[in-house]
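Objective 1b: paired records.
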Amino acid sequence: MKHTESETTVDWPATGSAIAPKNRTEAATCVRQASIDEVSIGGPGATFGWDLRRLDAVISFQQPDMVITTETGITLAELKDMVEEKGLWLPLDSGSSSAEPLAELLMHGGGISWLSHRHGMPRDWVTGMTVLDDHGNEVVNGAKVVKNVAGYQLTPLYLGSHYLFGPILEITFRLLPLPKNITAVRLTANSPAPLLDFIDQSRTPAGLAGAGEPWEGLLLSKRGSLWELQGFSRMSEKGLTALLPTEAKYESVDLMDAQAPPREQAPGSAGSRLTLQTLPSQVRDILLSPEVNPYSIYCYPAAGIIHLSWEDEHRTSEPLLQRLSGSAARIISRQTPFNAEQIISSAFPAAIAEKVKQALDPRGVFGPLVVGQ
């Protein structure tokens, strides 16, 4: 970026590269200059992307009110470390890289995790945010307090928007007290059946014992022929051990008391990827069907989310999709690097997305509108 007495100009990188502003003023300058130079920054199909990892300041941390405000270049892991050190908890997680900026998690529809069935999505914990509009001005949505009824609540429009309406520079989360007396669970088996049996058994009236949903976090994954259940619960180690089906065959069983909630450890995926959403009651039928055998899988069974991945470019997902036709399962994202195909799931219908885009970015500074097919 070049500075003169009269103006600031931007030296644009190669097309397809990411713009990495050093501060918020520089980010705003890039947006203003983009309109002048007729280039775009952010969304799918834009000239450039955003890299906000240098905007990582903690703006405020109000521990008595259990609210924290940070810039979005900070990572989720750094944010969780910070609040847990003070005895607080942000009940969001991600199986993605711990080095990924929070902006990427918020903007690309992330936030579905092993905690989602119990604690919801990022939108349930965001009380306010600051975004850049298409003129490079900072716009505040929501507030830095838990209870707020002032102004328009536009935060849900930006979460999962793929930067189509502008970047989120600052975010405010409400927090919870750090859970105590929890049990971490890790089971492995050669089939998903005994792992699903254990989950079902833990949810019986005898297992619940009036405590409601027993699982704070729950993840089921498959690599090769081995299935693994990871989770943590407020139930005691003794209580969970008593619920293990005696006739089930497990390769390993590990239940232990934990001082703090463990973090999600979703296996990485390479090659093609397909994400399905279905009813939690249908997860068992899908995971036990022979059509899923060729895939690597990680699944949030309590939320009805199933991720499948495969590296063989000659394999297709058609046999599985035919098996699921007529069921409640639907595709929410698909990525195939071999042919560069990607379907982006939109948070709202295309007609509404077009109206929102026209209202928030009529000049297309943040790239063309791209919605799911």
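Objective 1b, second protein:
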Amino acid sequence: MVLEGDLGFVPGQVRVGRFSAGVTGNLGAMAFELVSLTPAQALGIPVALVGSVFLALGAQFQHRGVSKGQSEERPDTKAGLNLKALLALVRRPVWVAGTLMLGLAVVLQLFSLYLAPLTVVQPLGALALVITAVLNARATGTKLSVPTIRAVAFCVGGIGLFVSVAALTTTTVPIHDAQLIIVLILLGAVLTILAFSFGFFRSKFSTLLYILAAGVLFGFVATLAKVVIDRVHTLIAFGFHYEPGDGLTFVCVAGLIAAALTGSYFVQSAYSSGPPDLVVAGLTVIDPLIGVSIGIAVLGEASSAPPRAAPVFLLAGALAVYGVFQLSTRHPPASPS
């Protein structure tokens, strides 16, 4: 089963041809080929950026809703939210508003995944951390310090470099059964490990552990969403023709729902024991790291990238991770009001 049609020439696509530079001496000659995005795929970048804005706003509002409940009754936040606390959230307008914003952010992210490769869209979510840092500063009446501004610069610079290289060297490729099976096996293993760990060591879970678990799961959510979206795109373009391997698509949908629900619970539990910028900081590091790693290692979205693009990816990722880490360690105290 192939989840996309022929990847030949697309009308309106602009390709940067092979570039070569002859250099005398021991340097020899260099040659590489860059792959550009179509205009429709490039539209996925601003769509993802708008989604990041709603992600930041939704995180702020949801954290306020969870914090209000925590101020009324103080359960063991390390043990996560219980059923009563979860049901109480839906009765708080501020939490519902945040959920609607996050829902819109998810829709925009899915649309951006429909338009552009995973490796281009996924890292843009890290910009939500920058917005969250600014919102927290305004909410707490504090000014962004020089170290915080420097961290923002590292984050934006790293993400900008990463996306620029990804836009030139990655492309959407056909996804085969073997790749889907690998992704689903990895997700099954992650869910099993998390279920075992949470069942036996729930009282020892910290905010960072909740963030780590949620980030890993949402990385899989983005990957499986891309698979399902590509499959729907294929059905629209070529019509429905059932093949034995198409059953994997339904397994992907089930895995996506399981990962999204479990990850959402971990996020709410993280809000109950930590500030929103710390939660967003962790998610915007781990989520893109998992999603892009799967996109490159399993789905082969960077198969057309020249070898010298790898160190640029690593450098850009390191800059963004450093900036996000610095932001997460300098967050102002969150206000529950």
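The chain has twelve helices and two strands. Residues 1-33, 332-337 have pLDDT under 50 and may be disordered.
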